[in-house]
Amino acid sequence: MNRLFGARARLRWIHLILGGALLMPYFLLAQVGVGMAAGGVNVLSSLPLTLAAYAAALPLAAVTAVYGLVRPLSVAAVRAMCAVPGERLAEGPARSWAARGRTSAWWTLHLGVGAVISGMTLAVPPMAVVLIALPFSAGLRDSGLGLGWFGTGAEPYAAPLLGAGLLGGLALCAAGSGALLARLAPVLLGPTAADRLAAAEERAADLAVRNRLARELHDAVGHALSAVTLQAAAARRVLDSDPGFVREALAAIEDTTRRTVGELDAVLGLLRDGDPARRDAAPAPTLAADLDGLLARTRASGTPVTARQDPGPVRDWAHLPAIASREAYRIVQEGLSNALRHGAGPVELRIRVRDAAGTGHLEMEITMTNPPAAPQDQAPRTTGGRGLRGAAERAALLGGRVEAGVHEDRWRLRAVLPLAEDAR
């Protein structure tokens, strides 16, 4: 009984009646055409002509369903009333002709079957009520209503059984039709291969943006925490003997934390924003504008840094492509963070732009070396090497590469970044 009269069955019944209501404009238009073709006859006065108008209305409905917005309308109705899981249905308008064809088939089926069920819903209950009341009303029996409708000679006491059978048949037809549409909905309204590809591309783009923002957070916050920790430790060691160094260290801590809080706030704001275009515009420091400050803050922690810069053909870091300047800065920042956390001595940094093996194409080479700390002095790793992976991902975005490891008894980080042709 629950399958015939339960909440799910009732909602699907309403869904079918909605389909019948949606067919009415098409039916009225087809009724005019069929009536004119039949010589101005009232279509509703003839069952064959009514059926002809119904048949003519279905192609009209199919044609209008090729418009893309019909699919989201149908999907919303199916989700609300047919108990079909949302993940099995497509999102958004139908764009490809394959998706439009499926939507047209669904629209025609929904409206066609819904019209039949709607007609039965309007006609069967009054007929069943008359039949059920027939044995108890002399007026109904004398009027010729009831079993005379069916051309039978059955006794009036059989009429209630027939009426109950009609109601049961209506409920069975409605439940069966609703179940059929619910089964066909994922087939006709489900995502096509093009829909799945578009969704996968959208997810990949969103994941790429989130990964980039995660790298920004890791590099900015990780470097800041490493620098602040070492600056505070160095200041504590010489608190009584070198007040000038302590003041410089505290000023560096203040500057580092202020800058990092600003970057953190900007990136978190972009992560909360639902607009992918704004999230893709996350601010980031550049080699041209922020390298000197980065080196100064690193030196303030007590680690000597020797930097040699050779812009070569580009003449000035400000002439670098913006993306190359941003990614180069973050790679240098990650190298300095590694040196602060795991190194044991002065850092040598060299940045230069050169011709790539005489090909005429420019590339930037970043090389950073420092003595590795003794095993007992190394800080324990808690990040799993995500920083070096992030540096490699940054270089790969530009078609470059990153190498990191021990080279001639020193830890070396080397990155090579191709530059655009107009970076001169």
Automatic annotation (TrEMBL):
Region span, Disordered: 369-389
Gene3D superfamilies: 1.20.5.1930, Histidine kinase-like ATPase, C-terminal domain (3.30.565.10)
One GO MF term attached to the UniProt entry: phosphorelay sensor kinase activity
Enzyme Commission designation: 2.7.13.3
Ranges for domain Signal transduction histidine kinase subgroup 3 dimerisation and phosphoacceptor: 210-274
Stretches that traverse the bilayer: 12-39, 51-70, 105-138
GO cellular component terms, A-Z: membrane
Keywords in alphabetical order: ATP-binding, Kinase, Membrane, Nucleotide-binding, Phosphoprotein, Transferase, Transmembrane, Transmembrane helix, Two-component regulatory system
Catalytic activity of the protein: ATP + protein L-histidine = ADP + protein N-phospho-L-histidine
Superkingdom, taxonomy of origin: Bacteria
Keyword Heme among UniProt keywords: no
Class in the EC hierarchy, top level: transferase
Matching PANTHER family: NITRATE/NITRITE SENSOR PROTEIN NARX-RELATED, NITRATE_NITRITE SENSOR PROTEIN NARQ
Protein name as annotated: histidine kinase
